[in-house]
Specification:
Layout (H helix, E strand, L loop, with lengths): L9 H7 L7 E5 L6 H4 L2 H21 L5 E8 L6 E7 L4 H11 L12 E7 L13 H11 L2 H24 L6 H11 L9 H4 L4 H9 L6 H12 L3 H10 L9 H32 L3 H14 L4 H17 L9 H13 L12 H12 L10 H14 L3 H14 L4 H15 L12 H17 L2 H8 L1
Antiparallel strand pairs: 1-4, 2-3, 2-4
Organism: Flavobacterium rhizophilum
Keywords: TPR repeat
Protein name: Tetratricopeptide repeat protein
């Protein structure tokens, strides 16, 4: 059972006066950091205190060999749910009588998602004396057993269900954080179970970037919101790129930390299963069965249409088949030029390219490859984040670059000013031009210097030079 113990619910201890030798134990099952926006705290605390009294009374009435636990779940669209667990098993009539009594307690409803709490009597400090199946355990089991298509649907539903929680946090900030509040108000009007333009809502949105700048450095509520927005639309490839990096900057105890852990768990399992499915097609390709491989890849895309890797493999097997049949020459890249639009659309940071015809293309091909060389040394993570952002900027992935440059500007003293200048440059490219007015720099001069530096880096690179010689 996954529980979040909160020191016997410190506030409840003060209300109830639980002594050190009390047999009562209380735990929240899940993420307690969202409680402030998900439940009516006063109503909940009054109800839970009354329920604790009842559980203690019922527990004391049982023989000493018995352990008793009651799981109470606040629902959004239904009355509070109660489940009784005991060891040994209680008589069904006794359980029914307990439930009738417990259901008299009024605790209100959850505002967004289920909010489960368990109260135990003589169950041990961590409920080790009794077996409880928590709601989270059920979710984990369902997700792990789901096929690829089901995981796609579960992830989209989960993201759309949890976005209102993040939006509620944004709407609840003080008025002085205008960017955060305006961003939250903007999103609160939308239904993320339906198609939404995420680029317009984030990349090209003044409020999104102002909100990013207004949050404290360790509170990643705003980029987390973007990740869930991407997931709600089934854009897992790109969402995962953000989710992999952000945890190293997330402050413990914030809602973002728990969510990032959940996202990486979900997408990690999803990508493992996706890799296994793609592997079946690769094995067919390696045997020269290109048509069968393409059929496997297309079946994957029917379940998860936004897989950049699968799209690449469709092109790769199709191109191999065309070469084998004499339809195209080995050097022909016309089909790749068509295919890469969708590949990079699903994942603009996909690290594969095919071939280059110009020095500029050769340099960008090499820059894509360089991404795979990053994050090998834990002691150089900040440096690698900056380099990752710099590569993204070279590739024109300005939203990702800006997010990472802002993070390094706050955490890497040596690169702070350089990161800030590049952050503003990326915003300029995204069409968000007014936020630079908050800083006393000659940005016209700064931006020209950045462009000159990047041009020199490209022209002096080995990849560019070799292409110019050929």
């Amino acid at each position: 059972m996954k529980t979040t113990l909160i020191c016997l619910l410190t506030l409840l201890v003060s209300l109830k006066g639980i002594s050190q030798d009390s047999k009562l134990t209380v735990a929240i099952l899940g993420d307690q950091t969202i409680a402030e926006v998900n439940i009516n705290t006063d109503e909940f605390m009054t109800g839970i205190k009354a329920l604790m009294d009842m559980v203690e009374e019922e527990g004391k009435a049982l023989p000493e060999s018995y352990s008793l636990a009651v799981m109470v779940t606040l629902h959004k669209d239904a009355d509070t749910g109660f489940e009784v667990y005991s060891k040994p098993m209680l008589d069904p009539d006794k359980v029914s009588a307990m439930l009738k009594k417990f259901r008299m307690v009024k605790m209100g409803r959850a505002k967004f998602i289920d909010f489960p709490v368990v109260i135990g009597f003589d169950v041990g400090k961590n409920f080790e004396e009794i077996e409880i199946v928590s709601p989270h355990d059920k979710i984990v089991k369902e997700y792990e057993e789901a096929n690829l298509a089901q995981k796609v649907l579960l992830n989209k539903q989960w993201a759309a269900e949890h976005l209102p929680i993040l939006i509620a946090f944004e709407n609840g900030v003080e008025d002085k954080f205008k960017g955060v509040k305006d961003f939250g108000v903007q999103l609160s009007k939308l239904d993320f179970s339906k198609k939404q333009d995420i680029k317009k809502l984030t990349d090209n949105n003044h409020n999104y970037w102002r909100a990013t700048m207004e949050m404290s450095s360790g509170n990643l509520l705003i980029p987390l919101t973007k990740i869930l927005m991407l997931m709600s639309q089934g854009e897992f490839d790109y969402a995962y790129k953000f989710a992999e990096i952000l945890p190293m900057f997330s402050e413990n105890g914030t809602a973002a930390t728990g969510y990032l852990r959940e996202i990486n768990w979900r997408l990690g399992i999803f990508n493992t299963q996706l890799e296994q499915e793609i592997g079946k097609g690769i094995a067919l390709h390696d045997n020269g069965d290109y048509e069968e491989a393409i059929s496997v890849y297309k079946a994957i895309l029917n379940q998860y249409p936004n897989s950049a890797w699968t799209m690449y493999e469709v092109y790769f097997s199709g191109n191999a088949k065309d070469i084998q049949e004499g339809k195209v020459e080995l050097e022909d890249r016309a089909e790749w030029d068509k295919a890469k639009i969708a590949v990079y659309g699903a994942n603009p940071l996909y690290n594969m390219d095919i071939r280059a015809n110009t020095g500029n293309e050769a340099y960008l091909l090499y820059r894509r490859f360089e991404m795979s060389t990053l994050f090998k040394n834990k002691d150089e993570r900040l440096k690698d984040v900056f380099e990752y952002a710099d590569i993204a900027m070279d590739l024109g992935v300005y939203d990702f670059a800006a997010q990472l440059f802002w993070l390094t500007a706050n955490y890497d003293k040596d690169a702070s000013e350089k990161s800030l200048m590049r952050y503003m440059y990326c915003l300029e490219k995204l069409g968000v031009k007014d936020l630079k007015d908050n800083f006393n720099y000659d940005f016209e001069k700064v931006f020209k210097a950045i462009e000159k530096e990047k041009e020199d880096e490209m022209k002096n690179s080995q990849a560019y030079q070799q292409m110019k010689k050929s």
